[in-house]
Description:
- By secondary structure, the chain is mainly beta.
- 11% of the residues lie in helices and 43% in strands.
- The two termini are 14 Å apart.
Amino acid sequence: MKVHISISILLFAILSCTDLGPDHIQTETIIPEEWAQEGLNGIWGTSANNLYVVGMHGTIMNYNGTDWLQMNSNTSHSLYGIWGSGRDNIVAVGAKGTILHFNGSEWIGMDSPITSNINSIWGINRDNIYAVSSNGSVIHYDGFNGICSKPPLMLHYTVFGRHRMKNFL
């Protein structure tokens, strides 16, 4: 908690003292307000014309650069994270161990090694994916199996990385 607050304060201080401050950041609202009120939790995309968002009650939507299209997730469980390596390999995770895979045409449920909420997902490629859960479990998918480990006395809320040897929880 202290780390997140310190980083937020530091970023605010840096942005406030440079030309990159809040007044100079350009944003564009592309999600309809009524959808945002439904509780959207994660976003991932390959470009500005191919975005995916996940949210409450199994919500998955795809932005094609012009329109938002609601996708059939085949679940009513809330989804918290999404990541992909391309248009035909996207994984969404969520409540009660939900793991969904998009193969380019449909979302298909995958076997999960846990039943607790999966909070976040990140990967290097389609055969090297990490997810973290609310009970402290770390799931690593190697292309064939989801292997679960639970570091002692740790709770994980997010996972990200930049290299196959440097992943952060």
